[in-house]
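Design review, sub-item: ligand-bound model
Attendees: FS, YL, KQ
YL presented the inputs for the pyridoxal-5'-phosphate complex:
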Amino acid sequence: MLMVISLSIWSTDWQQSLWVIVTRMWTLRLLSKLKRCNFSLSNELEALLAEKIAQLIPCAEMSRFGKNGSDATTAAIRLSRAYTGRDEVAVCGYHGWHDWYIGSTDKKLGVPEATQSLTHKFQFNNIDSLEALFKKRKDKIAAVILEPMNITYPEADFLPGVKALCQEYGAVLVFDETVTGFRFDLGGAQNFWCYTRLSNFGKGIANGMPLSVVTGKKEIMQLLDEVFLFHLWRELLSIAAALATIEKLEKQSGIQKITTYGTQLKEGLEALISQFSCSDFLSVSGNPVWSFSIYMLMSLKSYICGKHSTCKRR
Ligand SMILES: Cc1ncc(COP(=O)(O)O)c(C=O)c1O
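KQ shared the predicted structure:
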């Protein structure tokens, strides 16, 4: 059995708290510049943020904001369905708790069977599994949604292969950048791995304040005139927090800093694993900005049992 733990929980708490306090102060500074504002209605900051995202993120021409990652993945899927006139979706990772995705997992209790049957799985770094799915479902697949990277790096031809299959079969490629966004690069992982037409962001964009974004090419995003998303979602504080976060990431080389700290953390842990001969059951994986420690639980048990005589006796 594998157990995967995000290394971010091990980052030093005082640094995290300081970073949060500083971005919150930055947010207040931004808000104090506004002559008029209503925290729950549309505001010019929203347009400023959409413009900023369009400058930074390759696929971003139009954006719409939500509150959490699941809001934004669901928005991307609904838009893809509207754009293609198709119903089915191909997935290969975690994309939130909403019915269209969670119905394809073992946590599907409460999700109608009709909904479950619309989502199909393929494997990351296994282009044949996606091709087989496209061949089977032919012109039924509206969107292929995946994280450009999770624990393992994409093989060189995997993401371009996914993009080519989407083009061939007329499906929308969606990059779920809830985790990679504003961590791998200011332009997201899509800035250095094959461009997509639609993507979603969350988490890192407002440094912990509740905000997510669905963004993409105009020809798809303009369907928002008719596709219904996020009634009365507006909340100015998170929009201001995102502008403040991006400003700080840009001015203070934030991405380089988290890469450096993450690399130190990863290398330090790898050195300890080697020093204490734990490599049979513990390893580190992922990009330095979002690494995981992976435990092989059975090997861990035999390691502990080998060390402790009480355990041996049982
Ligand atoms: C890749 C990815 N997509 C979507 C989500 C859903 O985000 P939220 O929990 O904010 O709804 C998550 C949450 O961890 C995620 O990691």
